[in-house]
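Possible regression after last week's pipeline update?

I re-ran a chain I had predicted before the update to compare outputs. Posting the input and the new output here so someone can diff against the archived version. Not blocking, just want to make sure nothing changed silently.
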Amino acid sequence: MLQQVTLLLGLVVLRTQVWSIHYEFVDISKNLSYFVMSVEFAVFQYNEDNVDEYAYKLLRIRRSQRKRLTWIYLMDLEMGRTVCKKHEEDIENCPLQKGPGEKQVRCSFLVDALPIYTKFTLLNSTCVDE
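New output (post-update):
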């Protein structure tokens, strides 16, 4: 009886370990197409949700990860405030503000991508001014 309980307990622990490995985040290339699209979506969503009238653009990707067996991406981004309004066309080529209007923000985003439908959902975001 003790052997059966020990074996059962061992299997439960092993299954828990295997299950947690499958759902952890792993580092990925910053150049993977769906990750790049997820970054663009996160920056767009930040600009849409932000009350600031000026647009922010991507300065640096600090972390690029994907949850195993999913299309959920975790990213840490640095963004800078531009001189362009947030609904202008070419924000990527817009210069950053200098002087009193200069502002940078660091954000962590969790984005769920559905590649077949090219649909993205922002699951979570946390931002702090730098």
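Follow-up from reviewer: compared with the archived run. The domain at 25-129 is CATH 3.10.450.10 (Nuclear Transport Factor 2; Chain: A,). Marking as no regression found.
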